[in-house]
Amino acid sequence: GHAMLLIESGGIIQVNDNQIEHPSTSGPSLVRINDGGRIRITSPQGLYNGSTGAALVASNQLNYFIEPDGIVEYTGTYDQWITGSNDTQKQYGILEINKTAGKAYASTTNTRIRRSLRLVNGELDLNGKTLTIGDGNSNAITRQYGYLKSDTEAGRIVLVNPCSGEHLIPFGSAPNIYHPVIFRLNSSSLSPLTVSTWPTSV
Description:
Elements lengths: L2 E5 L4 E5 L12 E5 L4 E4 L20 E5 L4 E6 L3 E3 L9 E15 L4 E15 L4 E4 L7 E3 L3 E3 L6 E4 L5 E5 L2 E3 L2 E2 L2 E5 L7 E4 L6
Parallel strand pairs: 1-3, 2-4, 3-5, 4-6, 6-8, 7-8, 8-9, 9-10, 9-11, 9-12, 10-13
Antiparallel strand pairs: 13-18, 14-17, 15-16
């Protein structure tokens, strides 16, 4: 029958490299990450990619929903693919990168974050893809020890409706080589702001 796994505010589901699946074929099931709830994954194939290899297994009518302040944490030592969706309810609320080894890679051009990107530790490689953040506040991207990497012009960060104030895009090329892009807007903008950086031979 119908089933739901609910991650409430303050709750943490530590999936690691295991999987969540709905074994029954008798009805749909739902994984819901409420505001303030957290799912922590180390799966190389990421959160959900429409296959049976990701943290959320695409079988037996398993569906999922992330609230705007629900947290998806990519962690561990494996390389991991950051998955994406065109469905607003499946888009990341807060995406947190907290890698002790390995990298996180953008795997699709439709990776969208509704609230914020937190770069706690490790590398998030844009991999020639566009990562869109729907909240234009100056704290939409925060950094502790992590960084964004882009090797081509196609690797881009897009801020939707950026607000006035200072914005920092924490690009880097290695843990100890940091190339932040910092800009200040005197007023808010209704136009998206696109930022890209890449190495050259000059």
